[in-house]
User: Which sequence fits this backbone?
């Protein structure tokens, strides 16, 4: 049974930083593309970042480019999201997601393609 567990959320002021972690168990981690999504109150869950199986490729939503960085450590079965220069509009519950992939280099942006999800971690950015 796959388990994804996010951590590292919290409350920060505008311009602050947070580093989210997602620990994965129950599946072969390095066979999965990993994604980060977020959902603000009253809004749909939206794509934030994706990282390929081997970590060589990443893709970001335009709203976070240059501020967020996703990395992974396949030896630790973990993926990370470093978030810098946080803004109030980044306030949301952040989810990590996993999609099994045959390609080592593919990133995935569509929410519907991910089959496994964590429970989410709250990020709150105050003005």
Assistant:
């Amino acid at each position: 049974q796959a388990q994804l567990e996010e951590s590292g959320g919290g409350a920060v002021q505008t311009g602050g930083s947070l580093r989210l972690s997602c620990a994965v168990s129950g599946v072969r981690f390095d066979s999965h593309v990993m994604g980060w999504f977020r959902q603000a109150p009253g809004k749909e869950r939206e794509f934030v970042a994706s990282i390929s199986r081997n970590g060589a490729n990443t893709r970001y939503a335009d709203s976070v480019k240059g501020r967020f960085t996703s990395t992974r450590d396949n030896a630790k079965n973990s993926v990370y999201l470093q978030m810098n220069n946080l803004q109030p509009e980044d306030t949301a519950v952040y989810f990590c997601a996993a999609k099994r992939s045959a390609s080592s280099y593919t990133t995935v942006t569509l929410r519907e393609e991910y089959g496994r999800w964590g429970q989410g971690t709250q990020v709150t950015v105050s003005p």
